[in-house]
Amino acid sequence: MSTNQTPLRDKMLAVMADVNAQVAEREELVELIAIALLTRKNLFLLGAPGQAKSYAINAFRSRITGARQFERLLSKQTDEEQLFGRIDLSSLIPGSVPRDVLEKNPQYQEMCGRLKARLASGQSAGDLPEQIERQRKALGELYGGEPKVNTAGKIPEADICFLDECFKANDGVLNSLLTALNERKYTNEGRTYHIPTISFFAASNEIPNFADPQEKILEALYDRLELKVVTENISDRVKRLAVLRDKQAGSSRQIAASFTLEELKEMQGQVSGIPVPDSVNELADDILCELRKSGIPVSDRKYLNYYPIAQAKAWLSGHAAVESKDLLTLKNYLWQKPGDRAVVESTLNRMCVNPMSDKVNGIRAMAVEAQEEFDAARQDASKPKAGSRALIKLRGELIRLYGMQQDLANAAQSDSERALTDGLLTGLEQINKQAHEAVNFTHVPLEQMAAMQ
Ligand SMILES: Nc1ncnc2c1ncn2[C@@H]1O[C@H](COP(=O)(O)OP(=O)(O)OP(=O)(O)O)[C@@H](O)[C@H]1O
Ligand SMILES: [Mg+2]
């Protein structure tokens, strides 16, 4: 449980509201920053200069207390040392002991402390200097001569990283960044360091041209930034003027809400515990198939990792389990090319806001199509027994659609969903009845026909 009484979700919502009060029209971005942190995913921000990308990220970061942060504007000149730390030259001198080994050794520190105290109070040093030297030599035997990398303040010691102009990195830096983003690891001088970073935030004004062989290498970096958001200029005049007045007043905004790194980790635990019902997984699969049908590439890896994002959205919304509407947030996950954003968003809106009505409409459309085929076929005077043949075919299709309707009716979870599936059954039965009458056959209800199968 949280160390104080405020529920963790309220703390996260308070921070989001506080950032939104400072940055205009960035609600979507602010929510995605929260989702990235809650799911340990990386977030890519695409937008023209001056659209508060850095400003919003920094506003959010500054409200997470105790989180070690790393920020860098990348350029071709940025080298690995600037991101991952440089080798501690003193560690290469024979017999030397790396500084951090001495700093972390309690006996050594305790003896140094005693020596300082003695000297400060005018006492003689006694044999303490020899003892200290012996300890240092012993540590040197164990840890000396090993090259050490000083990673203080760099990515290997950062909980949150912000890489501005991320695609400006040179190839060497890019390769190390890829491993860092992908595996949260960094290798230097034969040693591999674990990287504690929760999320990498990366911003850019443009997406490279991946078709260009020179820029192709950047695609791997782009792929590893799972969440993606596009920023725009402030569209609302009133809000724009409010930001301007705020700036002119020169009032520096106080931080009104924050949470700690430990609390963030507890939040992550709550998020991963939110159940994902089968029906939601099935809906996610339907969405995947629909997008692929529309020519939007979604890899299996991407699909198989969708659920933490939906869990985070459900947690933020106060849902006890993931609901179909929570999948709407995948609009910042399922696209690769900005040109695909509109199709992804409209597909999600259509399928997630009322998935039952989408499915019901699909079945109804198939029934109407079968009815039209039946009408055309039964009037075909060139074929003997055209009417009864057409009816047999239609019956087969209606029985299939009836089965689908029954599955939906069994899965209905609310009165409104039940009303939809009931309405569908009435419609199917009506088509069935009209068809029988059209060819002078006695009407057999769908339920009976299905039972006879
Ligand atoms: N939506 C906004 N709300 C409040 N202030 C804003 C907003 N948009 C821009 N500003 C102001 O404009 C400044 C510029 O924003 P910022 O430097 O974050 O842009 P950026 O998107 O990171 O640009 P670049 O791509 O050049 O790095 C901010 O520091 C802030 O003062
Ligand atoms: Mg910036």
Can you describe this structure?
This protein is of the alpha/beta class. The protein has four domains: 8-79 and 154-266, P-loop containing nucleotide triphosphate hydrolases (Rossmann fold, 3-Layer(aba) Sandwich); 86-150, no CATH class; 274-352, Orthogonal Bundle (Helicase, Ruva Protein, domain 3), CATH 1.10.8.80; 355-452. Helices cover 55% and strands 9% of the residues. It is built from 19 helices and eleven strands. The protein has helices spanning 8-22, 27-39, 53-61, 80-84, 99-104, 106-120, 128-143, 171-183, 218-223, 237-249, 261-272, 278-293, 300-304, 307-316, 341-352, 355-378, 386-411, 415-438, 446-452; strands at 43-46, 64-65, 69-73, 86-88, 148-150, 160-164, 185-188, 191-194, 199-204, 227-230, 259-260. The strands form four sheets. The chain has a five-stranded parallel β-sheet, with helices on one face. A hairpin with a 2-residue loop joins β7 and β8. α2 (27-39) crosses α14, α16 (355-378) runs antiparallel to α17 and α17 (386-411) crosses α19 (446-452). It is elongated, with a radius of gyration of 32 Å. The protein starts with 7 loop residues before the first helix and ends with a helix. The mean pLDDT is 91. The protein binds adenosine-5'-triphosphate and magnesium ion (MG). Residues 23-26, 47, 49-55, 164, 205, 234, 243 line the site of adenosine-5'-triphosphate.
